[in-house]
Amino acid sequence: MTDKVNLEEYFEKFHDTFSPKIVGELNGQHVKLVRCEGDKIPWHTHDDEDEMFFVVDGSLDILERDRTITLHAGEFSIVRRGVEHRIVPHGHVKLMLFEPAGIAHTGNVKTEITKEHLDRLCP
């Protein structure tokens, strides 16, 4: 792993959406970058893992059954394990995710965007 990561340089390496890329790893956690656009994320939960969404560019809503959290560039939120949620981007959004290495991409739900194996952009 290099000593520093330039997020924009890594985002330029891919343009597909809803396909997280691993750009770092620490203490059993993956640091991932993902581009999102459109309303494609299903309602889902992660029974054993918390999930952190950091908006690098753009804005999005994190919907939980009883509330909506709107995030803009430079803001993050942590969805706690067991909380049913989905995200809805406002236009094209760049996200950084911090998640346990074994987390299922779309939690307990499988859809056309679910990825079983993630691409790794870091050495």
Structural features, described:
- The structure is a single chain.
- This protein is mainly beta.
- The chain is built from one helix and seven strands.
- Strands 1, 2, 3, 4, 5, 6 and 7 form a seven-stranded mixed beta sheet that branches.
- The termini are close together.
- The mean pLDDT is 87.
Kindly name the structural category.
Answer: mainly beta
Low-confidence stretches at least 5 residues in length (pLDDT < 50)? Answer: none
Shape: globular
**Span from first to last CA?**
6 Å
- Beta percentage is over 45%
What is the mean pLDDT?
A: 87
Helical amount among residues, as a percent range? under 10%
Oligomeric form:
single chain
SSE inventory with pairings:
Elements: H1 7-11, E1 21-26, E2 29-36, E3 51-64, E4 67-72, E5 76-79, E6 85-100, E7 119-120
Parallel strand pairs: 1-7
Antiparallel strand pairs: 1-2, 2-6, 3-4, 3-5, 3-6
